[in-house]
Specification:
The structure is a homodimer. Chain A is α+β, with helices and mostly antiparallel strands and about 240 residues long. In chain A, about 45% of the residues lie in helices and about 20% in strands. The mean pLDDT of chain A is about 95. Chain A is globular, with a radius of gyration of 18 Å. Chain A has two domains: about 130 residues, Jelly Rolls; about 70 residues, Orthogonal Bundle (Arc Repressor Mutant, subunit A). In chain A, strands 2-6-4-5 form a four-stranded antiparallel beta sheet. At the A-B interface, β5 and α4 of A face β5 and α4 of B. Chain A binds a DNA duplex (30 and 30 nucleotides) through α7.
DNA sequence: AGCGTTATGTACGCTACCGTGCCGACGCTT
DNA sequence: AAGCGTCGGCACGGTAGCGTACATAACGCT
């Protein structure tokens, strides 16, 4: 039970719940292991389960067509997958891809909707989370439009590091190119530049963050703004 | 009273409300005139009023810094301004600029939050609206990233025409450049191309849509997708 | 009619990024 | 130890859009 509470507290949306709500939550959730590359939801698919990552994290990707796809949001320990159920919508807007393997708490859509009715604190917190996501989506739109690959790459690495909880990230240039919606060669050039500045080191599918403050310096302000927003709207 | 009902029905989020909810709404709302260029909300400002446009419409703009701004959403007769209050958040994520003069229904933030508690149908409908906006924000991010100015301009004109309810739009290239986050000269070239194809005609701050189907053809699919999404999630 | 203001056309060199394709290097498998 | 698939470096020409600047044209005011 204590260890289960520990698990609950590992997702930041679930901390600080009153005992009653925590018990209800525990009664219906299960722990699952997510593996890298797993597709949890296809765009416009019906949501069957809601996920609260613990040490895994998930990329939310807009698929325009077979050639054009772009990651627009991430959900790790600080977020969730399936938030549209909070709005009463059972379809998902985007492709959900497991980007960091690990565990997550899972609830069926039905149980989740029941739970919301009897858990005002959780419900309120999740609505606030949706606001954060909305604002981040809006900012991302502008960021992807105006900022250059190198700065966006730096931002992306920082966001990933936060969620992975490690300075070693298993990522290929190919994968990064898909996330940022650019050429693989474009990532290579940006990565070379960041490495030359001593901010990262990489070889064959592994990127190590060497100088986090330097990487923040190299990223656009969108990273810091995102962090500040989350801290403001969803404190602790 | 009949005319007031007419006004209520003029905003698509307010149609089809049960009589009780409509009465509560009418009791606290007022009609206001919005003039072009008026700033209704600065980013991160506290929301004092919620607006339901009737024949006006509002641009929601992300301001990254003084040079970089980008319109990411529009609210006309089909939408509202201040939806974050539905999520229990009193701050606004973006700059709200009146882009089409006209009238709107207005409610104070306080009254609006009261109203939501006693109006389940309205509340549900507004949550669905938030979902639509979220998905549109995500799609916009990808659209602005991948699609070219000419297609984006066509899309933007169509969206504006829908909300203005007229094929005559009062817009300068300068203004369009700000909305799309591109150079004024870039708009001029795209506009020339669209005019050469006989889709629009323009002179000194007025753009006339001549061939709507053709313009849809020239736009990216994001326009049709947006329309389809709204129709699916918020029918009638 | 004349004048200032605002809107649009156009031109310049420049940059970031594209699509593609090739090569070498690494590391896993057998 | 050899082989093969994956990953990263690099190079090519091409293009969309940038920043800037200046010229022309329409309108509105006196």
């Amino acid at each position: 039970m204590t260890s289960f509470m520990h698990v609950l507290n590992a997702n930041r949306l679930l901390t600080e719940l009153p005992a009653v709500e925590r018990d209800s939550f525990m009664a219906v959730c299960e722990t699952v292991e997510l593996s890298f590359g797993e597709v949890l939801l296809q765009p416009a698919e019906t949501i069957t389960h809601v996920y609260f990552p613990i040490d895994s994290f998930i990329s939310l990707i807009v698929v325009l067509d077979s050639d054009n796809r772009l990651e627009v949001a991430m959900a790790g320990r600080e977020g969730m997958l399936g938030s549209s159920l909070v709005l009463g919508i059972e379809e998902t807007p985007m492709l959900a891809l497991v980007q960091g393997a690990g565990s997550a708490l899972r609830i069926t859509a039905e149980n989740f909707q029941q739970l919301l009715l009897s858990s005002p604190v959780l419900h309120q917190r999740l609505k606030r989370y949706i606001y954060v996501v909305m604002k981040q989506l809006a900012t991302s739109a502008a960021c992807n439009h105006f900022h250059q690959i190198e700065a966006r790459l730096a931002r992306w690495l920082l966001m990933t590091q936060d969620r992975a909880g490690s300075d070693q990230l298993n990522l290929t240039h190919e994968f990064l190119a898909m996330m940022l919606g650019v050429r693989r060669a474009g990532i290579t050039l940006a990565a070379i530049a960041l490495q030359a500045r001593g901010l990262i080191r990489y070889q064959r599918g592994t990127i190590t963050v060497l100088d986090r403050p330097g990487l923040i310096e190299a990223s656009c302000e969108c990273y810091s703004k995102d962090c500040a927003l989350y801290a403001k709207i969803l404190p602790i």
